[in-house]
Design brief:
The complex is a heterodimer of chains A (about 525) and B (about 325). Chain A is an alpha/beta fold. Helix content of chain A is about 30%, strand content about 25%. Among the domains of chain A are: about 1-85 and about 195-245, Rossmann fold (3-Layer(aba) Sandwich), CATH 3.40.50; about 345-420, no CATH class. In chain A, strands 6-7-8-3-9-10 form a six-stranded mixed beta sheet, sandwiched between helices. Chain A has a six-stranded mixed beta sheet with strand order 16-19-20-13-21-22, sandwiched between helices. In chain A, strands 2-1-4-5 form a four-stranded antiparallel beta sheet, covered by helices on one side. In chain A, a hairpin with a 2-residue loop joins β14 and β15 (about 325). Chain B has a single domain (about 5-315), classed as ABC transporter involved in vitamin B12 uptake, BtuC (Orthogonal Bundle). The longest helix of chain B has 30 residues, at about 5-30. Chain B is globular. Classes of the chains: A alpha/beta (about 525), B mainly alpha (about 325). The interface between A and B is medium-sized, with 38 and 26 residues. The structure holds adenosine-5'-triphosphate and magnesium ion (MG). Magnesium ion binds near residues 48, 49, 91 and 169 of chain A.
Amino acid sequence: MIDTSSDPAVAMRGITKRFPGVLANDHIDFEVQAGEIHALLGENGAGKSTLMNILTGLYRADEGEIALHGRRVDIRSPRDAIALGIGMVHQHFMVVEPLTVAENIILGLNKPRFALNMKRAEEEIAALSQRYGLRVDPHAYIWQLSVGEQQRVEILKMLYRGADILILDEPTAVLTPQEAGELGRTLRHMAAEGKAVIFITHKLDEVAEFSDRVTVLRRGRVVATLPTAETTRSDLARLMVGREVLFRLEKEAVEPGETVLDVQGLRALGDKGLPALQGVSFQVRAGEILGIAGVAGNGQRELAEVLTGLRKASAGRVLVGGRDITNRSPRVVIDEGVAHVPGDRLGMGLVPDLAVSDNLILKSYRQPPFCGGFFLHRDSINEHADNLIAAYDIATPSPATPVKLLSGGNLQKCILAREITTGRGLLVAVHPTRGLDVGATEAVRRTLLEQRAAGMAILLISEDLDELLAISDRLAVIYEGRIMGVVDAASADLEEIGLMMAGTEVSTSNPKP
Amino acid sequence: MNMAMLVSILAVTVQAGTSLVFATIGEIYTERSGILNLGVEGMMLMGAVAAFAAAYHTGSVWLGVAAAMATGGVLALIHAFLTITLRTDQTVTGLALTIFGTGMTSFLGQRLGPAGKPLVGLIGPRFERLPLPGLSDIPFLGRALFRQDLLVYGMYLLVPLAWYYLYKTRPGLHLRAVGENPQTADAMGVSVSGIRYAYTVLGGMLVGLGGAHLSLAYTPGWTENLTGGRGWIVIALVIFATWDPLRAVVGAVLFGGVNAVQFRLQAAGTAIPPAFLGMMPYLFTILVLVVITWWEAFRKRVGAPAALGLPYAREEKG
Ligand SMILES: Nc1ncnc2c1ncn2[C@@H]1O[C@H](COP(=O)(O)OP(=O)(O)OP(=O)(O)O)[C@@H](O)[C@H]1O
Ligand SMILES: [Mg+2]
């Protein structure tokens, strides 16, 4: 299998990187062989992206050295890394939206000296995408592409430069299961050609399925490097988190109460002015989690936005606790006790530059004890922050730290803490565990189940079927802005759900009221 | 209105628009790299005074042009150093540059004449009209467009070149990428600050050139505040042009055209007070800007470079 006797394609030794207040990488030793797929695992904030950003020249290490194929190298900038054959698909995609696919792929090269020959580049790209099975139209503009397609562009970018060390930072976080499977095959293909592939993920199944070896980081240190075949899911989780992780959460039986959310014939337009919701109706009762399943872009985002007052409905009604909140302002919706955990954490959920403590009162700063008339009461704001940080186990250097410096899992804990303390009755959660590590995922899911037990009605919008099946009571499948059917989560048939997600109407085991 | 009058209005339009085209293309290039330089008015004034003073003392309009471009470039370099290296606020820095330029030119205008005397009122060398053989005999258009000075012909060449460079060349691609998404450009090995410096300085040079056209050709000579707010019009034209060099011409021609008509009316003598006529081009610019912004926003693409005005540092988060 992997030949560990020859010089490794990548050898990072004693890498240390400090950011103000954080030791992101602490004397890390990390090796990858040519021809292997090496998974890099670790909690949110463990330092995975930092380590890879050092390898690609985006960050400078404070200490340590790097050798490629046995030769010491000094990587001072991304330019150096590219010249050394290192390519990376970043956690947050690095694409220029108003440019075309081909322009993005040739960006930064000095091959055409002056005049661009797009025709030639487009032909080369088409050939390359043919060879690796990465379907994408070179003429298309990036903003026209789905996230899955954008990711193919990112991979083509590396391949076009002839990179032989490929790094993918959480490439599957935004992909459907089918797309993730395709990506796995592409990675195999590339490893078989002798490339070294480094693959960061939080999904332990993918580690088992695609990787040859796995390195686990915890708090900036390497805790183990193992052949994947010798590990199990729970071993890996334990190494990452430092404790046992429950994959199956206990879901206690809760007798659903009154209908809290009643959506009737809801219609709305999407950003491009096309119909995104075409007559959606469903109900959620107190103490119940209704999951909305579906492939991204079938109206989920618009649905959440209409329910929380952020988008106008063109027809239909939304009743919360019997009160009509259709097309009322977000302020009214908040006052009606609707909590919202948005999919875009830093964009919509938090104000990145504000302190953790301020973010925690974004929805209640108008009320006592946080303010009296005109002035804010710092003392009670800080006390509130201390309480929530303790209760929700939010890892932050201090309550005054700008929230943008927290890791993904802790961002989500901040939002949940705030929403749960201000919400009464209904919680709308969109992709609540996307990009989170196993420990944080467990914590978020447990919080949702606790709220269910406390009588909250929860609408859970997610693309992760496992998650939906694990914690929801009923499952509604959305396709092109219509609910294709509602099924009982306990007795759900995966095949049936798959069919509905692809647009087939199925007689539902739980008839629409 | 007869033919001769139309020809003359069109000719004056081109004359009046030339400095705007130079400066607008300059500012488009600067803003495309993500740097907002509100110092256009100041740089244009400094360019104009430098051009006239240099031409007056050396007798060469070309040395005047060189002095104007160098002055604009140096001022832009200061802006680049402050905003890119020291990461000062771009809006404030640009405004300061304009205030500096305005004050400095009024000072220099009093001192740069012979023996430390004022420049105001002096007559110096100027760009003469140079009808292009053949082309200038084309009826109507030829007479309006090709009986102009050399800087105008230079502008005719610059416009398509600027467009081609921006959209069809590798450095143009890099420029567009840096203004849209510096993180990505950096990760792809493009030098973000190198590009920002280069195009801020280039932009300043073109703005300076616009100033030179004012003091050496359009209204030869120096008077205080010679630009009459053209630098601000340029900022508006950049938006009007949606950061596209070809569209910049349309804007400059519209502004220059209203100016030319307004002059005609003044000369012909109407009941409208001259102060109001003088306002027309500016009112018109505001109107066009409002309409364009409304219309573009309606179609959801206003088209400003996404990173315009934002500093970039590689290891900074968020
Ligand atoms: N540019 C930066 N400035 C300041 N702190 C940073 C910066 N980049 C990362 N950090 C901090 O360094 C630590 C490691 O972050 P890193 O992004 O490497 O984590 P990660 O393992 O990739 O986590 P995730 O799974 O959430 O992506 C975190 O505490 C993070 O807040
Ligand atoms: Mg990361």
